Amino acid sequence: MLKSHEGEEITMTVLEVKHLKKSFGSIHAVQDISFEVNAGEVFTIIGPNGAGKTTTLEMIEGLVSPDSGEIRFGELDWNNHGNTIKKKIGVQPQSSAMFDLLTPEENLNLFATFYDKARPTEEILQLINLTDHRNNHVKKLSGGQRQRLAIGLAMISDPDIIFLDEPTTGLDPQARRNIWDIILQLKELGKTTILTTHYMEEAEKLSDRVCIVDQGKIVTLDTPAALIEKLTEEREVRLSFLDGTDAAKEVCLFAKDLDSVTRTERKDRSLKLWSTDPENTLYSLFGFTKEKNYHVEQVSIREMSLEDVFITFTGKEWRD
Ligand code: ATP
Fold first, then answer.
1. Which intervals hold domain ABC transporter (predicted)?
2. Do residues 128 and 149 lie in contact, with contact meaning Cβ atoms separated by under 8 Å?
3. Does ligand 1 lie within 6 Å of residue 24's CB atom?
């Protein structure tokens, strides 16, 4: 986020996408996608397999031409300012684009020769935490280290906007976290990152805004907190009882009659219910259990996550 002289936050749009469409034969990969990306933010696109995320990214990166729609980087568009846009953006290359028999340092130096202006290799090696491996052949690097090098190669021309398409897919949790650290460092450097991921936790942790795409369309777009907020009209409350199944059955019947309770599910001595007013629902339930002298063993109100948002908006279970 930029600040004015008076300290006010200024939002500057660096990318504007309007009514983007792309079909491959009868497959409508991208049906109508519009969004804006602000300077300095991590903007994440998530969605089920085949939702159109990669196609969207590739159109914005200038690799695939849209059937219709507009892509503008400020005043610049691909038809008239392709070379200038190429200097402003960095795209994480596929692993196959790296030279396996060269070292990370040599790969970075080689990629640097493609540009008029490059960020010093030394700085990039530090940023991607590969200084200790600078002289090892790329073919000897782990999956996580290769992915870090791929981000480094996207950074070599010191672009303002960096595109990372599933940079952590297939990596173990520690290797994933190492990539998260780099994305957060890019943010500190004032870069804008456009990310796709299959990992909900990643989207929730890293993103300023998340765009959920399904069947080539945006189903919702907002900050992770605002998306979760939209769902908190109804919360899941869980209770279990020391007094066994009969107690749970009786409390379940009582809960069903409360106006705030929209749904109940009971299994043995555990009860799950969904309430529009969880606090008052719990007061009523505790009044009832006290009157009956039942003993509550456990009680919780479940935290909502971005995964709940995904399931609500796409109707699909989330799979990593
Ligand atoms: P994933 O999460 O699996 O990577 P995605 O959201 O990135 O999926 P895309 O790769 O954009 O989805 O694909 C969207 C749809 O377009 C899919 O049905 C895919 O099979 C199809 N598709 C993508 N590229 C091509 C192509 N070059 N030729 C034909 N069909 C394509």
1. 15-240
2. yes
3. yes
* Count of positions (residues) in the chain: 320
Closest CA to 237 of 215, 260, 253, 218: 260
Q: Is 54 in the pocket of ligand 1 (CB under 6 A)?
A: yes
Residue 51 Cβ < 6 Å to ligand 1: yes
Query: Closest by alpha carbon to 195, among 174, 224, 233, 226?
Result: 224
Q: How far is the CA of 35 from the centre of ligand 1 (A)?
A: 20
User: Tokens 């950074």, residue?
Assistant: 155
Helices (H) and strands (E) counted in the chain, each on its own, are 11, 15
Distances in Å between the Cα of 46 and the Cα atoms of 126, 133, 146, 307, 314 are: 29, 32, 23, 11, 11
* Gap from CA of 95 to ligand 1 centroid (Å): 19
Atom of ligand 1 nearest to the CA of 216: 14
The CB of 216 under 6 Å from ligand 1? The reply is no
What is the phi/psi pair of residue 172, to 5°?
Answer: -75, 165
Question: Model-level pTM?
Answer: 0.81
| C-alpha to C-alpha distance for 316 and 268, rounded to whole angstroms | 28
Ligand 1 centroid to residue 50 C-alpha, Å:
5
What digits encode the pLDDT tens for the residues 191-243?
999 999 988 889 999 999 999 999 999 999 999 988 887 766 778 899 999 98
Answer whether 206 contacts ligand 1 (Cβ < 6 A).
no
pLDDT of 150-190, one tens digit each? 999 999 999 999 999 999 988 998 999 999 999 999 999 99
Ligand 1, residues 20, 21, 24, 198: which to mutate, most atoms within 8 A of Cβ? 24
Atom of ligand 1 lying closest to residue 48 CA: 2
The C-alpha atoms of residue 43 and residue 195 are separated, in whole angstroms, by 6
The residue whose two tokens read 């990152």 is 193
Smallest CA-to-CA distance from 271 within 296, 306, 303 is with: 296
